[in-house]
Structure formats: structure tokens, C-alpha cells
Amino acid sequence: MQQNFDVIIVGAGISGLYTALNLDPKLRVLLLSKKSLVLSNSASAQGGVAAVLEGSADSTDSHFNDSLIAGGFKNNTEALKILVTQGPRDVRRLMDFGVAFDRNPDGSFDLELEGGHSHPRILHHQDATGREITAKLIAAVELSRNITVWENAMVCGLKQVQNGFSLDILRNEEDHVAAGCYACVLATGGIGRVYEHTTNSAAATGDGILLASGAGAKLRHMSWVQFHPTGFNDGRRECLLIPEAVRGAGAVLLNAERQQFLSHYDPRAELAPRDVVSKAMVEEGRRLGDSRFYLDFTGAEEAYAREHFPTTFARLAESGIAMTEDMIPVCPCQHYLMGGIDVDLNGESSVDNLYAVGECAHTGVHGSNRLAGNSMLEDLVFAHQIADEISRRAENQGRPVLGEFHFCEEELGGPVPKGFRTEVRALMQKSYFVIPDPVRVVDSFERIREMRSVLEKGKYRVDRDYMEAKALVNVAYLILKEVL
Ligand SMILES: Cc1cc2nc3c(=O)[nH]c(=O)nc-3n(C[C@H](O)[C@H](O)[C@H](O)COP(=O)(O)OP(=O)(O)OC[C@H]3O[C@@H](n4cnc5c(N)ncnc54)[C@H](O)[C@@H]3O)c2cc1C
Fold first, then answer.
1. Do 87 and 20 have their domain in common?
2. How big is the chain by its Cα radius of gyration, in Å?
3. Please, which pLDDT band fits residue 405 given cuts at 50, 70 and 90?
4. Which pLDDT value is given to residue 10?
């Protein structure tokens, strides 16, 4: 039996939560999270949100220009204008939900400076801003009677039906249930798990991109992948991110010979945008034949580091690194996808009433490289745009009547063979990481094409393993196809 809602939001990071909270409370909303509500890229975000609040000596024009420069002037300027001008309203609204941004003793905001920004404009909560925002938004969602939340509910299929969509949802790894809606919002986050080294959470497997393309939605700039220069290099797949604000606070990057080198590659040195720094690291590693890099924060007081970067300080200490005494080993790692499901200024994809928001969406605000702090801002601003648009349509056009479709993916066979995800990660890591290798891209694409065909034609049980293998192979296929 299919359960019907007005709106189904697939994903409960900042984008999904904030969309739900801004919809007209008369609408019945289902909010889905494929794992626990606290596992998302949003919850891991450390640095903060970029915004120019009223009364500041900074300006939205400067924020706009910095975003354009970082984005290689490939940004959608209309969308970017909306981002920088409406962002302050949404950041204020976060405070209404109880989000506490750090303040100076005089009550003003303690604004951080991060790479690529010409003014300090990052509002933050220590170095755990995403955790603070998601916690407060989850609390608000729990109080909202129109929003039903299903955790451990993974969407495995999305089908357009008369007047709306039908979704196949795998609950608690076991039961497939069908749910219908007339407006569907994909807020499924990033694709980091397509790489061996990433800052992204385990949920970041690009599911929304698979669902959207299956429904016929257009995708754009899938090869615009961002690599962060300072993942803590302790050999784990999910790298602890050392925030750029640490460089903003005076940390310097050293090569294997323990020398500063960034000024040879860019005059902004430590404060250059992250793509510039990541590329400089790869080139410097090649020049020296040694890819070891260190972040040196020994110029800072321990008390300062503890107070400003408590999460980073504690996580490094757990690994035996004293943040202001030791050299911190770092490496570039996958961090963010600028491309994704192509949407208009109201967040609607090329399929009517199918919306996308946050990291899975391509609004064009970031151009080919995202400026620090602009991601959470994009989550908020475009979630608000979508919520307003859906609410407006419901008000003007009424709610379409949904039929009963009982759509669930067919259970075709046994479990998908192991190894797809590991192989795709290895292929992406060696062929399309920071500076793509044109020869390896060709070979990897051929292999990924084969894997894609096996997964599409094979008869497998529709479970988490199958869905994630299919989503990751699909993402790798789309990225490499674009650069061939
Ligand atoms: C370590 C780290 C630090 C960062 N620091 C910053 C920062 O300082 N400033 C900044 O602006 N940005 C930062 N970012 C980027 C930013 O956090 C993310 O881009 C943004 O929060 C993404 O939000 P989202 O809501 O789109 O996706 P996410 O927060 O990743 O949420 C995705 C949601 O989708 C759900 N989902 C996925 N697939 C399915 C499915 N098939 N069915 C059901 N649910 C599904 C997941 O369970 C999850 O709830 C950081 C990212 C990381 C990883």
C-alpha cells in the first residue's frame, strides 16, 4: 500500500532539513535519511558559513567577486547574486532556530578569514559549525507536526507517475515500501565515496544523481570535482579535514623538505583558493619526487588552537599529534562536487516538480571551484527558494490528486558481487584526482563502462550494496565521460 504525501524530501542534511522547515506547514512532508539523521556531510562541516550581515564593513559585492574569482568566472551570475544577497536572511533565520555563532567579547560576530575571501566573513560555531546547525534544525523538524521523518530509509527507485512521483524506499535494510508525492526534492549530498581519499561521509555515494538521471533530469558539469588541500594524512579513507581557517590563522604548508613553497605557485600563498593549493601540492610533490606535506601551526599558542579549533585539536590529539607542537601530515583529498543535477533559480530540475538542492544540485553559484563557506550558504538559500516555489504552487494550483501505484523495484536475484565499489575508487583515484591523467582516464572509462553494463543488465537483489555500487559506478561514468 503506497503512502502519499504532498512533498517527499530525499536527504536530511542542511538542504533537506531547511527545505522541510520552510515549506508551508499545511503541506504533508516526508523527510528521508538513508542512515541516521546525524550522518551527513552537513554534520561534518567544520569551518562555517560565508555571509555578509548588515552593518558590516564588508560588502555583498566583494563576496560576489571573490566567488567569481574562485569559480574561474564560470559561475551563473544570476544564481550567485541570489546567493550573496539572500544568504544573510537565511543565516539570521538559522539564529532564530537557535544556532549559536561564535562572538567576540564585544558581542560582534567572530568572523574567520578563509582561502579565497578578501575579508573575514565566515560565521562559525567553533570548528563544528555543521554539527551545530544540523542539531538545531533537527530539533525544529521534530517539533513540526507536518513533517514525518524516516531514518534508515534509503530511496532505491524514483518513477514519474500521473500527477507526481512514486518512490521505492528500503526501510531498515529490509522492507521495501512505496511512497508517493506530487513534488519531490532530492537533497542527497555529495559523491566523495567514489574516491579512496575524501572528507565526505559514508552517505555520499551520489544516489540522487542516479535517481535524477533515471527520471530523465539533465545533469551538468559532473567533472567539476573539488579537492581540499589539507586532509589529515593518517591513511584512512575518510580524511579529517583541517579547516582552511587554520591557514587563515597563520598555519603554513611545508613540502617534504619542510620548506614553504606555495608562494612559488601563487602570490596568495597560504590563502589561495583550495584548488590552487591542491594543484600546487601535486606539482611540488612531482618536482621533489616526494609527496609528503605538513601543516605547521607551531607559531600559534596552544590555548588559541584549543579554543578556536577544539574538534580538530582533539581529533589530532587522538592520533598522537599535538596541533601546535608537531608537524601535521596532510594530503589533498576529494571534498566537493560543483556539478550535479541541473536546476533553475527555484531549484527545479528539467523534470517538472522534481527539485534538487545542496551538493547534489548544480545551481551554478560555484562556477568550477567553490569558495569556502559558500556550500552551506547555497544549501540554505536554494532550499528556501524551493520551499517558496512549492508552497506558492500549492497555494495557486491546489494539490494534485495522487493515484495508488505501489512502485517497488523488482527483487530480481541474489546479492551484487563484492568489489565494485573498491574497484571504482581505485580507478578514480589514479585517473581523475586533482590533476587528471588523460591516458588513465581513457582506460578507466572503458572499465567503468563495462561495470555499468554488468550492474544494469544483471539480476541483483535491490539492497544498499547494489544501490550504492550502481550509484558510484554511474557517478564515475558521468565524470570520466565528460572529460574524455
Ligand atoms: C568535512 C567537511 C567539512 C565541510 N566544511 C564546510 C564548511 O566549513 N563550509 C561549507 O559551506 N561547507 C562545508 N562542507 C560542505 C558542506 O558541508 C556540504 O556540501 C553540504 O552540507 C551538503 O549538504 P546537503 O544537505 O546537500 O548533503 P548532506 O549533508 O551530505 O546530506 C545528504 C543526505 O542525503 C541522504 N541520502 C543520500 N542518499 C540517499 C538515499 N538514496 N535515500 C535516502 N536518503 C539519502 C543522506 O542520508 C543525508 O541525510 C564540508 C563538507 C565536509 C565533508
1. yes
2. 22
3. low
4. 98
Decide if 313 contacts 304 (C-beta within 8 A). no
**Percentage with pLDDT > 90 across the chain:** 86
Q: What range does the domain containing 294 cover?
A: 229-331
Question: How does pLDDT run across 30-72, given as a tens digit for each residue?
Answer: 999 999 999 999 999 988 999 999 888 899 999 999 999 999 9
Bridge partners, 32 (sequence order): 10, 150
Q: Is 198 in the pocket of ligand 1 (CB under 6 A)?
A: no
Confidence tier at 408 by pLDDT (50, 70, 90): confident
Query: Got the DSSP string for 286-308?
Result: HHHT---EEEE-TTS-HHHHHHH
Task: Assess whether 147 and 34 both reside in one domain.
Answer: yes
C-alpha grid cell for residue 170? 528500503
Q: What angle do CA 384, 389, 391 make, to 5 degrees?
A: 95
Mutate to test the pocket of ligand 1, among 42, 186, 343 (most ligand atoms within 8 A of CB): 42
User: Count of domains in the chain?
Assistant: 3
Segment 91-108, tens digit of pLDDT? 999 999 999 999 999 999
Expressed in angstroms and rounded, the spacing between residue 40 Cα and the centre of ligand 1 is 5
C-beta of 42 in contact with ligand 1 (< 6 A): yes
pLDDT > 80? residue 190: yes
CA–CA gap between residue 188 and residue 204 (Å, rounded):
8
Asked if the structure places residue 425 within a domain, the reply is: yes
Is 19 a pocket residue for ligand 1 (Cβ < 6 Å)?
Answer: no
Tell me, using a 6 A CB cutoff, whether residue 31 lines ligand 1: no
* Ligand 1 atom at minimum distance from 169 CA: 42
Rounded distance between C-alpha atoms, residue 260 and residue 277, angstroms: 12
Q: Are 1 and 176 in contact (CB under 8 A)?
A: no
Q: What is the pLDDT of residues 315-372, one digit of tens each?
A: 999 999 999 999 999 999 999 999 999 999 999 999 999 999 999 999 999 999 999 9
Same domain, 319 and 343: no
Residue 292 shares a structural domain with residue 316 = yes
Same domain, residue pair 276 and 151: no
C-alpha of residue 149 to centroid of ligand 1, in Å: 17
How far away, in angstroms, is 362 Cα from ligand 1 center?
Answer: 14
Nearest CA to ligand 1 atom 35: 11
Q: Using CA positions, which residue lies closest to atom 8 of ligand 1?
A: 47
Catalytic residues: 274
Residue 405 domain flag: no
Q: Which amino acid is at 282?
A: V
pTM for this entry: 0.95
Q: Is 242 in the pocket of ligand 1 (CB under 6 A)?
A: no
Mean residue pLDDT of the chain comes to: 94
How far is Cα 171 from Cα 52, in angstroms, rounded to an integer? 41
394 CA → ligand 1 middle, Å: 28
